[in-house]
Hints:
alpha/beta; 22% helix; 12 strands; 5 helices; Rossmann fold; globular
Amino acid sequence: MHQGDGRMKYIGVLGLQGGVEEHHHLLAQLPEVKSIDVKYISQLEEIDGLIIPGGESTTLGRLLRVFNMLEPLKQKVLAGLPVWGTCAGMILLAKEIEEETTKHLEVMDITVRRNAYGRQLGSFETMQQVNAVEKAIPLVFIRAPLVSKIGEQVGILAEVRGEIVACKEKNMLATSFHPELTTDTSFHHYFVKDLC
Length: 196
């Protein structure tokens, strides 16, 4: 690991499915950051933090199981590996998913509602103040989930229309929106600087 020593930070992007390249593109713009496609258990030892991208949460969960990565990844996160889930990644991190019996990593003390914005509002963009980056940034939502309930240790980083769309607990970060679909690197910088 390379935490806190001023050297290069190695940030993994779970490369099984979803918006992987978009995260790599923004990470490439940050100084002293090298991004790595993570597809194997052994790679979890090579990174300072992991991004779980947007995609299809059921498919991502199934692929984690197929590649026997679910339990090792869960243990790494519980042991302190910084992790950030965007959209589907948020669903994978959640301890509870409304109206779902199948859960995935179950590491973050949040309850998530899938496709919370429905088909008619399936995709939208807004400029919104986000506490973590201390400025308004573009937030892109694509059939996004939202956080309907949080545990005592979870801090709220952003709300849209009165709903929680970004939160943090210890080494875990979750966003309903997709910073990787914008040109703004603020949230990636926050993850690398403050969590990794």
